[in-house]
Design brief:
The protein is an alpha/beta fold. Helices cover 32% and strands 22% of the residues. It contains 15 helices and 19 strands. A hairpin with a 2-residue loop joins strand 18 and strand 19. It starts with 14 loop residues before the first strand and ends in a 5-residue tail after the last helix.
Length: 471
């Protein structure tokens, strides 16, 4: 059977996507590319496609997906540097007031070979695997332009909850009802929650699963996945014109490369975006005693310049010079989603941060949402997928994407950095060595295939499950 063949005799379905962020947009594009006859409704809570956040790192795995979707050439126009010229991340010990030192550089440039051991100062990989960086706004604008004609976008539609009829008997193909904050409702045959870390789709999914559980213990256990968990970390974000830094410190590495200036309980991540005209700043400040506690107040607020500078009072002069140029900083209480037992139930699925929001230390949040969206979109668009088989298809998506998104590989290194504050000087030195090894080891995920390989594997399972073996 051809991948572009759709039988008019097979019942098709309408897909609703809640969330117009990067993951939701790529899902709509993927479905539309591989099956333009599936109607898609994209519901976005704001009055336009959101661009919250600033910089996005585009790694090899993400590059493969956007290339497969025909998006790479348009996106490359906004890359700060092409992937083949990227030099990876520079790590620096900076919590030394009189001046820090280069710790190590992590070069990721190919998927063909790696040079052990992991504690080497340079980790070599082959051509065209280095990270490229771009402004989130530029990516969102490019993706919006590529939305298929089969997709209708609905703005100012914030989901409150959904209702899915019982999946047995006659209820198995009845539509899902969506309820929005403005009092309106809509229906769909398939619902995908791409609505972020505070996902209303995830909330409803686990509330329903909890209510249907026979055990009181299982009931309480499932409800723990409804809300995100505070990590005890705060993130300060800012953007500023690169030219402002260039005037006072023209040799500053942040003007050219991604850098991670590391301290005992603080980390400053910087890299150029918007074709090198802006510097993206992400400052991570942690308090281990607060991890897992309830965060009071708004998760995102405006921060003062003095507040940001105060977090790096013991850092080297070059860091302070850079921070002096930060404009309109904001402070984010960093939350994550607990490792979910499932991300698909009935004809409803989760992707991106709604399914596996993690810390930003690997710069992979948007990339993982894109990979989720590609695999899920290919499954939904497949000519063998019918309304009746959607629950099975979503479980296949879950089986391939959820383990990777929630694995230890994709978790951040915040706790390891935080415990550098404890113990003797000799013990801290040993821990820094172990941290370096852990950082390098964590980048193994870049060499673990990718969404294209996952799709090939999953399509084979789809054909086996639905009894179609002809190519």
């Amino acid at each position: 059977m051809s991948q572009t063949s759709w039988s008019s005799e097979l019942p098709r379905f309408r897909v609703a996507i809640c969330g117009g962020g990067i993951g939701g947009l790529v899902l709509a594009i993927t479905i539309g590319k591989y099956n333009p006859f599936i109607p898609i409704d994209l519901y976005e809570a704001h009055d336009s496609i959101p661009t919250v956040g600033a910089g996005i790192a585009i790694w090899r795995r993400t590059n493969e997906v956007v290339s497969e979707l025909g998006l790479l050439e348009d996106l490359k126009a906004a890359f700060t540097k092409p992937p083949e010229s990227s030099h990876g991340i520079h790590y620096r010990r900076s919590d030394i007031p009189e001046g820090g030192y280069d710790w190590f550089q992590h070069i990721l440039r190919c998927k063909f070979f790696c040079v052990p051991p992991y504690h080497a100062d340079t980790f070599l990989c082959g051509p065209e695997d280095g990270p490229s960086h771009m402004h989130r706004q530029q990516m969102a604008a490019t993706l919006e332009k590529h939305l298929p004609a089969s997709c209708t976008v609905h703005f100012k539609k914030r989901l409150v909850s959904y209702y899915e009829p019982n999946q047995s008997g006659e209820g198995s193909t009845k539509p899902i009802t969506l309820r929005f904050t403005d009092g309106t409702t809509a229906t769909a045959d398939v619902l995908v929650g791409a609505d972020g870390i505070r996902s209303a789709v995830r909330k409803t999914m686990f509330e329903a699963a909890s209510e249907e559980s026979d055990s009181a213990d299982d009931n309480a256990d499932l409800r723990q996945y409804i809300d995100a968990t505070w990590t005890g970390m705060m993130i300060y974000r800012s953007l500023f014109p690169a030219e402002n830094l260039r005037k006072v410190d023209p040799e500053n590495l942040s003007l050219r490369e991604a850098t991670s200036c590391t301290g005992k309980a603080t980390t400053l991540i910087t890299y150029p975006i918007a074709n090198g005209t802006l510097i993206n700043v992400v400052a991570v400040v942690g308090d281990p005693s607060l991890a897992g506690t309830h965060y009071e107040g708004s998760w995102v607020i405006d921060a003062t310049h003095d507040e940001l500078l105060g977090c790096f009072d013991n850092f080297e002069p070059e860091v302070k010079t850079l921070l002096q140029h930060c404009e309109n900083p904001s402070r984010w209480a960093l939350h994550v989603v607990k490792e979910l037992p499932f991300c698909a139930r009935g004809r409803v699925a989760l992707l991106g941060d709604a399914s596996h929001a993690v810390t930003p230390h690997l710069g992979s949040g948007a990339g993982q949402a894109i990979e989720d969206a590609f695999v899920l979109g290919r499954l939904l668009a497949h000519p063998l997928t019918t309304l009746a088989s959607v629950p099975d298809v979503l479980r296949m998506y879950q089986d391939v994407r959820l383990p990777f998104g929630t694995s230890g590989i994709m978790t951040g290194l915040g706790k390891k950095r935080i415990w550098m504050t404890e113990g003797s000087a000799r013990l801290r030195k040993t821990r820094w060595t172990k941290l370096k090894q852990a950082i390098l080891k964590r980048w193994d995920w870049m060499e673990m295939g990718g969404a294209l390989d996952e799709w090939k594997e999953t399509e084979g399972r789809l054909r086996d499950k639905l009894g179609a073996h002809d190519a």
